[in-house]
Amino acid sequence: MLRKFVVTIFVIAGFCIQCSVFGSFAFAGIIPNLMIILTSSFGFMRGEKEGLIIGFFCGLLNDICFGGFLGFYALVLMYIGYINGKFCRIFYPEDIKLPIALIITSDLSYGIICYILLFMLRGRFRFAYYFSHVILPEALYTIVVTMFLYPLILKVNEKLEAHEKRRAQKFV
Amino acid sequence: MSPVIKRKGERFTLPSKYLLLILTILCTLLMLITFGTDVFNRPLNSVVGYVVVPFQQGIARVGGWLSNRSEELVQIRTLLDENAALKEEVARLTEENTLLQQDKYELNNLRELMELSEQYGEYEKVGARIIARDSGNWYTSFIIDKGSDSGFMVDMNVIAGGGLVGRITSVGPNWSRVTSIISDNSNVSGMTLSTEDNLIVSGDLKLMADNCITFSQLVDSRNLVAEGDKVVTSNISDKFLPNILIGYISSIDKDANNLTKSGLITPAVDFEHLEEVLVITDMKQTVTSE
Fold this sequence. Notes:
The complex is a heterodimer. Chain A starts with a helix and ends with a helix. Chain A is an all-alpha fold. The model of chain A has no long low-confidence stretch (mean pLDDT 90). Chain A has 6 helices and no strands. The radius of gyration of chain B is 25 Å and the shape is globular. In chain B, strand 6 and strand 7 (198-202) form a beta hairpin. By secondary structure, chain B is α+β, with helices and mostly antiparallel strands. Chain B has a domain at 123-290: Thrombin, subunit H (Beta Barrel), CATH 2.40.10. At the A-B interface, helix 1, helix 3, helix 4, helix 5 and helix 6 of A face helix 1, helix 2, helix 3 and strand 1 of B.
């Protein structure tokens, strides 16, 4: 219950910050993708199911506010969360390399999927331009933000897990 | 044994791959349904209106306050100089104004004589504040802090500083989404003010950094359109009210077909530093039916 509450706060706060605060911190008009950080880090910390549910709701929020129709971002982010959840078994909290690698891969693939479905299908074929001017800067900026945000998410998750363990022991 | 079957005394949990499948089907259905209709827009937009928009309003207000304070500190010195210069200008302009007032009086008299009414009356406008920008980097839309409670509807035109910003594409009770004309998925039917030739103005992500938008399909058989010409919304557009300034032509090229021309337009609005916008509450339909 507490976990659901905390994660909801994380998603809503992340979304608000992404579209309000980072708008003024944009480098060359590029803003980082906090939704990817949340989806993918909860994915590899907690497993496939949590990853895909958080991804779904992050995407749905994006769909309602900025999407032309519902379900597109929800679908993309849901699969990203699910695939990140596959890496739950080889995730150790001390290791920072795997999270960074996973988040950068997730953001790059998110960008490429968006390019293919939103731009290439409308006849904008200069992939090299869009890759170097939108997708790559976004991934790099996202990684910079990850450095600050990820330790916070990790710490909160540890606290939650400790809390859940205590409650489980109380039942036994 | 199938993992879905429930054992006695065990809490029912759905394996993640089944959940993934169910949600995938749900998303696909949602996309198919909402592509043509907007049945879910009303409830979902209200939910967002109560959950997200208050936070965004708060953040936008704090952010605006902070940036105002920092700007104040920087600008005090320049403002003092500017103030002196402006005072001189005020004196000059007051003089000019009295002259113009006389002209206007004369003009009104002449108009009455010729029974000319102004071609386009003043549109009803409502101010709104931008509280959030697009969370992605592909399209340029933003959210303003008023919605259907203030009488806003989808397709209302949005202007700022005398130029066209875009149109409303989605409304909730206390927020609405504005898709701007520089967004890559936006097309506006416009015309050159001097020659009244029609053209299509489209946003382009590649030119966004240069603060430009493209135009195409300009039929200019008499070769009269030149760089610097004003481009306004055309009177054949079904979404945009006529004669709203879009921008100025900054370059013009002949297309390969030798019939039409295309080129670049510098928008009249500074989209990077947009904070408040005006929403025109008159719709195109009501204007044409009058």
